[in-house]
Every structure is written in C-alpha cells, then in structure tokens.
Design brief:
The structure is a single chain. The protein is mostly helical. Helix content is 61%, strand content 6%. The chain has helices at 3-20, 24-45, 48-72, 84-100, 108-114, 116-124, 143-153, 161-175, 187-199, 215-231, 236-250, 254-273, 289-316, 326-332, 334-337, 342-355, 368-387, 393-420, 424-428, 433-458, 464-476, 479-487, 489-502, 532-538, 568-578, 589-594, and strands at residues 358-359, 366-367, 520-524, 550-553, 562-565, 581-586, 607-614, 617-622. The longest helix has 28 residues, at 289-316. The radius of gyration is 27 Å and the shape is globular.
C-alpha cells in the first residue's frame, strides 16, 4: 500500500500539468503541496479523514479526465509520463522505501511531537483535541504532519519508518523541479542534478534522510521557494507554486512562518523592482506600478491569513499555552521583568558559537561565520554568471543579498528564542544550537548550488564549472554518511531498534484501560531510565495520569524520588483509593522481597495490575486481555 500515494501523486501531477500547461517537474510539487493544503483545510473544518477519501475520489476523476484528454489530444499523450522528472521522482520514492525500512523513533523530540502528532492523526482521523490529546506542543502548526498523515493513511497499521519515508518524499517532490526542461539526451545534467539532490542536504545534516525533525526540511522549503521564483520562468504556475510552498512553510513551525515571510519579501522586492520590459517574452509583470506593488504583497497577505486559520482553530479548541507562546510573552514582559543576569551569558555564548566555535563534525572544520563567507564567494560567482544577461541583474542581486540579510534576521529570531522561550539552563547552554543553525545553512547551500547549476544550463554555458562544484560537494560529504545512505541503510535501522529496546517505558495499554475515566500509576524500580515521553507516545492519544513513581518501605529509602510507606498494605490501599491500575515497568530485588505479599501470583515486569479485594485484603492482580 506504500505505492498507493505514489499513484495518486502521478495521476494528479499529470492532470495538473495538463490543466495549467506546466511541466511535470512543476506539477509534482504543486500536487503534493495542494494535497497537503486541502487536508489541512479539511482538518481545520473537522473532516480530516473524509478529506483523504475526497482526494482519492478526485484522483479517480483526474484519471478519467487524463485518459479522455490523452485520447483526444496528441499533445497530452501518456508518453509525457516518461519525462526525466517523473521517472526520477518515482525512482527516488522507491529508493526511500528501501532506505528508511525499519527505522524507529529514538529522540524525545520525536516522541513529544513530530512522531506523536502524526500517530495521533492516524488513530483519531482528526487534528488533536485538548480533551483527549497527549501532545505537549499544541500550538505547533500541523502542515508537515498532515503530509506524513497522507502517506501513512493507506497502511494497515502505523509503522514508524513510514514517517521517514514521508519526509523524504516531500523533499524529493520539492527539488524534482531541477529537472524542468531537461531531456534524456542531456545525460550530464541529469547525472549532476540527481546526485546533487541526494548530496547537498547532507553537507550540514548528515542524518537528513533518516530524520523526521523539522529543522532540515524548513531550510529546504525556504531555499526551493526562492529557487522556483528566481531561477525559472516567472509565470502563473511558478507564482502558484511559490505561494503554495510558502503557505506550507508558514504552517510548519513558528520559525517557518518567519522564513516564509522573509522569502515573500524577497519575491516582493523582485516584483516591485521589475520594470515590465523583459526581453525573453515574459509578460507576467506588465502591470501598472501600483498594481505591481499590490501583486507583490499578495503572497505575504496569503501567508498571514493562512496562519490566522491555525490561530483561530487553536483558540476555538481551547489549546493550552506551550513553549511556542513563550517568546512573545517573554518579550512583552521584558519591561516589567527587566534584564535577567543570565541574558548576558546567553548573548556571549551565542556570539562565540557563531563566530569562534568550530563546526567540527564536517570534513572542513570551520565556524558558522566562515561558512557564511564561503557562500559569500559563491554568491559573487552567481552574480558574475547571471549579470552577463542584463535581464537578470536586479533579480540575482535580490536573490543573493536577500539571503545574507535573512541570515541576520534568522539569527536574531534564534537569539530571542533562547532569551525568552527556553529555560535558563537550555538558554545558557544553547540547546540544539547547531541543529537550529543548519536550517539556514541547508537553505543557502541548496539555493546557491542549485541556482548555479540551473543558471549555467539556462544561459547555455558549458557544464565544466558545474562538474567542479559537484566534485566539491562529493568531497565535503563524509563517506560514512554516504555508505549508510546508499550501501548499508540497514545499519541505521538496526541502531535505532537497539536504542529503542533499551528504553524503559509503558507499552500500549489502550485496549486495556479507558484513559478518559481511569487512572494509572506507573512504577519503575530498575536502573534503566524511565522515558515518560515514550510512554505517552505508546499510549497516544491519551495522556498517562501522573508521573512515574518509585515505591519503597520506610526502611529502604533509595532517594528523594522514592515514595515511602510503612507497610505494603498502605501502598495497595492508596492504589485502590486513588488509582485504577498499576503498571510495573521494571522491578528490583528489594521491592520484590518487601511487596510480594500484596501481589496475587507472580510479579512480572512490563505488566499491568489492578487492585481487587479478595476477602478482607486488597491485592494486585494481573490484567488479562
């Protein structure tokens, strides 16, 4: 059933190509983004699962239309499906199935949101509601999760590796536009672009294709929206594609909204500076001055309005506040709270990490600012390439300068996030600084490298410099990363499986407990660290009641986290009064010796018990079924 979404993409892409008279290279991302935006709207209106069936029906109608069109018009023959863009997209889709097979979630961020959100949708068929949801970040916009939900919906059960597949499919659908206008006989360009698609995101994120976190794909979306606009013909199809992608980006995360607006401002600047006298037949901008300004601001208005839909939905759903709201609150409270002492340390650490700390996990051990300088040189080469064509001078300057201005805007946003959204410990230690920073560097590396290759071909230059650029990318990407991606992808799956097995968490109890009315105490007595986030993930869409507890008698205190009781019977009585069930994650010898009399039968790890009365005694009995 993993092939079913691919079939839908092919059918809708072909139909969109025919209806809008755009290439398949552009209609593929239009189809994937359009499906996601429709499902988002369906989720907002409360019929997310029904939205899937509507898309399937639309795909069937599109298939019938395409058959009729292909029969009546020779220009829309099914031979069009043999274009490099579609064939390569299908190959990359199938490659992703192989490369992601068996991968499991292992990080807290995956358990707390990026995996949990999709699993929630899969089980409930709707956006999460606060009454029953165990999501920690309610206000995170759901667009990335919506696309992944579409991929996994057609499977018989929820499989975590399909989350990684969905992320890869989204990426490949966005970058397949590099094959726009490329024919099979141009094999050099096909080879260069194919491998650059696979290699460029690995420059700054070695686990890009085995990660479901948002940081990498946010950079990709930011880059590709600008590549679409500045590197391809500026027509209605391109405008729609850019707008769809920026709306998608803005509804993926709070930082994505900032990136979307910065990209929209760059596009607006290009439209406003355009004089409507292009020499290559493009007439898209031949408006009066004021109409051109209004048109330039349209994407920004659409981005803001689309985000308002999520704000309104969150408000109507009574979502509680989470870390995504702390930034605005922290800035507004600055006048009353004053500058806290640790703010200075955060600023110093931030500037040091940006300008002096080396990014050592790459072959070239350089600082982030050194990398920025490298891309500055590449920007000079880009301008030199395009400025020979007078039509492109203003556009390429907006493209290059805009990227460097956006660097400082993005970094300012990141600094403010550390100051006002993170805890003091996380802020001072710049939690996940490299991960957040490579969002921008994935964007600029992808945009500049792809723009150079496209520009060289577009301006009918020889591909010698593109070959050199390609070789540099190959050298910079570490061999172990390439080996795991292409030769030994099972190593990643095996690693995640072994890590997951080491976690101590509550198994799925949804078929045994009614979490809406019944309460559970979790007891973990082993040396392994109890993972509450994984426990909640396993039992989604319900939130486990209370924190994990350690239990002991008064004379066997092992630490501050231990709940002490005078007798085992006191503990069991409390269970009977305040809880409905007890789940034993892991046992130790002391507990087994002290509490054996309050268990009916054998004590077992990872087992659910309920308190029952036998005669005049309360005991814990294993729950069966």
């Amino acid at each position: 059933m993993l092939i079913f979404p691919l079939i839908i993409f092919i059918i809708i892409s072909y139909t969109v190509s025919a209806l809008l008279s755009v290439s398949l290279a552009k209609s593929i991302p239009l189809a994937t983004l359009g499906i996601s935006l429709f499902l988002y709207l369906a989720g907002i209106l409360g019929f997310l699962r029904l939205g899937i069936y509507i898309i399937v029906a639309a795909a069937f109608a599109a298939l019938v239309y395409s058959i009729v069109l292909a029969v009546k018009s020779k220009s829309y023959s099914f031979k069009k499906l043999l274009q490099p863009a579609l064939i390569i997209f299908v190959f990359l889709y199938l490659l992703s199935i192989f490369n992601t097979s068996g991968i499991m979630l292992i990080s807290n961020d995956e358990f707390s949101h990026w995996g949990l959100m999709v699993k929630n949708m899969y089980l409930t068929g709707s956006f999460p509601q606060i009454q029953s949801s165990n999501l920690l970040f309610y206000r995170y916009p759901p667009m990335l999760s919506v696309f992944k939900y579409f991929i996994i919906f057609f499977q018989n059960k929820f499989v975590e590796s399909h989350l990684y597949l969905a992320g890869n499919v989204l990426y490949f659908s966005l970058v397949i536009v590099l094959f726009d206008g490329i024919k099979w006989k141009q094999y050099k360009q096909i080879i260069i672009r194919f491998f650059l698609i696979l290699l460029v995101p690995l420059l700054f994120e070695g686990s890009f294709f085995q990660s479901i976190l948002s940081d990498g794909i946010l950079g990709v979306m930011y880059a590709m929206a600008l590549v679409y606009w500045f590197m391809f013909k500026k027509d209605k199809g391109t405008f729609a594609l850019c707008t769809f992608l920026l709306v998608f980006l803005g509804l993926s995360k709070a930082s994505g909204l900032g990136l979307a607006i910065m990209a929209a401002l760059m596009i607006a600047a290009d439209i406003i500076l355009d004089n409507g006298k292009r020499t290559n037949g493009e007439k898209f901008f031949e408006f009066s001055r004021y109409k051109r300004i209004a048109f330039a601001l349209l994407p920004i208005a659409i981005i803001i309005l689309s985000n308002l839909t999520w704000v309104i939905y969150s408000h109507l759903s009574s979502f509680k506040g989470d870390s995504s709201t702390r930034l605005v609150e922290g800035i507004l409270n600055l006048s009353s709270g004053g500058i806290k002492p640790y703010y200075i340390s955060v600023l110093q650490n931030f500037l040091y990490s940006l300008s002096k700390a080396e990014v050592s996990h790459y072959i070239l051990s350089m600082t982030w600012m050194s990398w920025l300088a490298v891309f500055g040189l590449l920007g000079v080469y880009l301008y030199k390439l395009f400025s020979k064509n007078a039509m492109n001078r203003k556009s390429i300057l907006v493209f290059i300068i805009g990227f460097f201005i956006s660097f400082f805007g993005y970094m300012l946003f990141l600094l403010l996030t550390y100051l006002f959204s993170f805890s003091e410990y996380e802020a001072v230690n710049l939690a996940s600084f490299d991960r957040y920073t490579y969002t921008y560097f994935i964007a600029i590396s992808m945009a500049f490298i792809f723009a150079y290759v496209i520009g060289e071909h577009k301006l009918k230059k020889k591909t010698k410099r593109s070959v050199v650029l390609f070789c540099l990318v190959v050298i910079l990407v570490q061999y172990p990363i390439l080996a795991e991606l292409f030769l030994y992808p099972q190593n990643v799956a095996s690693h995640t499986q072994s890590v997951r097995e080491s976690y101590n968490a509550v198994e799925n109890l949804n078929d045994k407990i009614d979490f809406e009315t019944e309460k559970l105490m979790v007891v973990n007595l082993g040396e392994g660290k109890y993972n509450r986030l994984l426990s909640n993930y396993n039992n989604t869409p319900y939130l486990l009641a209370g924190e994990a507890e350690r239990v002991g008698l008064g004379n066997s205190k092992t630490g501050d986290e231990t709940l002490l009781y005078d007798t085992p019977e006191d503990w069991v009585s409390e269970i009977a009064e305040q809880y409905d069930y007890v789940y034993i994650c892991e046992l130790n010898d002391t507990f087994m010796s002290d509490f054996k009399d309050v268990f009916e039968g054998e004590m077992k790890e990872h087992t659910l018990y309920e308190a029952v009365t036998i005669g005049d005694k309360v005991v814990l009995k294993i729950v069966i079924g």
